[in-house]
Design goal:
binds glutathione, Glutathione S-transferase Yfyf (Class Pi), Chain A, domain 2, four-stranded mixed β-sheet, 4 strands, globular, Glutaredoxin
Length: 229
């Protein structure tokens, strides 16, 4: 299988299936495309023959069968590997994990738009400024703290449903955001964010992202060309 991804420093959607597949030992070939969203760019030329949405991530089977969109990729992998606990084994826990992922997929708009993922950057000063100027960011943070807190209290941790699952792969880019922007977390959420960052597949993506040093101005609203914020 081939997994098409974007820049590791910036591509939060790409991070999810990459981390999931690494964490569960599912072999794949990584094809990294440098972000360039101008019409006709090499990014789009590489994706157009592959995916109808021209977005990453895309998973392509050896026979050419294409699965696009992060959630569909996770579901496909779970079906292809029924012995792996990509979703929790208990039906209700599984439904809960899917609810969390779906909420992440379509929600947390303020956190996503105001705090784009930028693993290489220390944006704590920016985070402090956003906290004082963006009241709706607090709503997303409260929901995040509540959601993580409730799941961790029920499972006992260290991950949302005990063992690492797709729910944690889904929230790994969110952990990157709260850590880089220094956003406030309660004690349980802080411990969870540390556990996610220590998870080997997450740590491997972060190491690659930091080594990348391919800074794109359009992905850097708070600093230019990798300079300090
Ligand atoms: N909901 C999609 C979102 C994918 C997405 O927005 N990918 C971005 C990069 S992180 C992209 O490829 N953008 C290219 C474009 O917007 O043309 C998913 O889950 O896969």
């Amino acid at each position: 299988m081939k997994l098409y991804i974007g820049n590791k420093n910036y591509s939060s959607w790409s991070m999810r299936p990459w981390v999931l597949m690494k964490a569960f030992g599912i072999a794949f070939e990584e094809i990294k495309l440098r972000f360039d969203f101008t019409p006709g760019s090499a990014f789009y030329q590489a994706l157009k023959p592959v995916s109808p949405t021209h977005k990453v991530p895309v998973l392509v089977e050896d026979d050419g069968f294409v699965i696009w969109d992060t959630l569909a990729i996770a579901e496909y992998l779970a079906e292809q590997h029924p012995t792996l606990a990509i979703w929790p084994l208990d039906a209700r826990q599984r439904a809960r994990a899917r609810s969390l992922c779906a909420e992440m997929h379509s929600g947390f708009g303020q956190l996503r738009s105001l705090c784009p993922m930028n693993i290489d950057a220390d944006l704590k000063a920016v985070g402090q400024r956003l906290l004082s100027t963006e009241p709706k960011l607090h709503e997303d943070l409260k929901r995040l703290n509540d959601l993580w807190g409730e799941a961790l209290a029920a499972s006992g941790g260290p991950f949302l449903f005990g063992e690492f699952s797709n729910a944690d792969a889904y929230f790994a880019p969110v952990v990157m955001r709260v850590s880089r922007y220094g956003l406030p977390l309660n004690a349980a959420a802080t411990a969870y964010a540390q556990a996610v960052q220590a998870q080997p597949a997450v740590a491997a993506w972060v190491a690659d992202a930091v080594a990348e040093k391919d800074f794109l101005d359009f992905e850097e609203p708070y600093r230019q060309s990798g300079s300090p914020a």
